Structures are given as C-alpha cells and as structure tokens.
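Example record for the data management plan.
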Amino acid sequence: MANLVVRNLDPTVVAALKQRASRHGRSTEAEHRALLEEVLLHPRPKSFAEVLLGIPDVGRDEDFVRQEDKMDAARVFD
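Corresponding structural encoding:
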C-alpha cells in the first residue's frame, strides 16, 4: 500500500473531516481513505440537468431549424 501526505490543508477542512469520521465511527485516516475511494472509484452519475448544462453554447438558432419547419405549411397535406 502507498502512503499519501497532504500538506497545507485549511483547518476547517480538517475539522470537517474529523466530524465526518466521528459520525461514521472511524478514524480520520480511515475516513480520508473512504472519501478518496468514493470520489475517485465510484463517481456519482451526472443528472440530466447537469448533462444539459454541459452542452456548449455554440451556433445560432437558425443553424438548428428542422428541415420540415422550412416547408410551406400548405404543402404538408399534399
């Protein structure tokens, strides 16, 4: 097993880690390991809203007009 040293942590982060470890009934080190595993090996799937927000804002509205919308309405029932 490898060792990991994390330096220069904000004291509020350390306090939050200790509180979380206490709630889960484990040591701060064990909680740190569990957090790293949870975040890195079991990422939360994105919600539909997050996926939509990730779509880049490119092009103009006219670029995405459906071809059917361009047809003459009178010819739809020919």
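Summary line stored alongside the record: The radius of gyration is 26 Å.
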